């Protein structure tokens, strides 16, 4: 995607960014557990939690939000690309931004069922450090912790 513009999330972006999250999360074939919140609850979360409390960027193509990246400390907390823009390098561009912003290292969680994400992150240098039964996440779905760089949780 040649004309991708990346900028911080603005208050007027939250509904559109939440729709990208929702569309990505529900794209077929979905490798993710079903969302446990409604689309409206997700939009509220973007406006009331991600906007003020995290560092969130949006990727725009032709003025339309096509991707969302959220960093929460050294965690790559959210990375979602609209299904219509998937496979065009948008996610890779945002991962590289995250690495530039956190040169000391990053960590993330992905669901064990999301093998596409695991492969994507492995291609970007992330390695698995542990698996859980999912008891600590909202979906109660087994997940995987991955790290990149010199993150404190990285295996040496």
Account of the 3D structure:
The mean pLDDT is 93. The strands form 2 sheets. Strands 1-2-3-4 form a 4-stranded antiparallel beta sheet, sandwiched between helices. A 3-stranded antiparallel beta sheet has the order 5-7-6, covered by helices on one side. The longest helix is centred in the first third of the chain and has 15 residues, at 39-53. Strand 3 (64-72) and strand 4 (75-81) form a beta hairpin. The protein contains 4 helices and 7 strands, in the order E-H-H-E-E-E-H-E-H-E-E. With 156 residues, the protein is an alpha+beta fold. The chain has helices at 14-25, 39-53, 90-101, 115-123, and strands spanning 5-8, 55-61, 64-72, 75-81, 106-111, 127-132, 143-148.
Distance between the termini: 36 Å
Approximate strand percentage: 25-35%
Number of strands: 7
Sketch the topology as an H/E string, one letter per element: EHHEEEHEHEE
Mean pLDDT: 93
Helix content: 25-40%
Q: Compute the gyration radius: what is it?
A: 15 Å
Class by SSE composition: alpha+beta
Shape: globular
The largest sheet is: 4 strands, antiparallel
Low-confidence spans: none
Number of DSSP helical runs: 4
Strand order of the largest sheet: 1-2-3-4
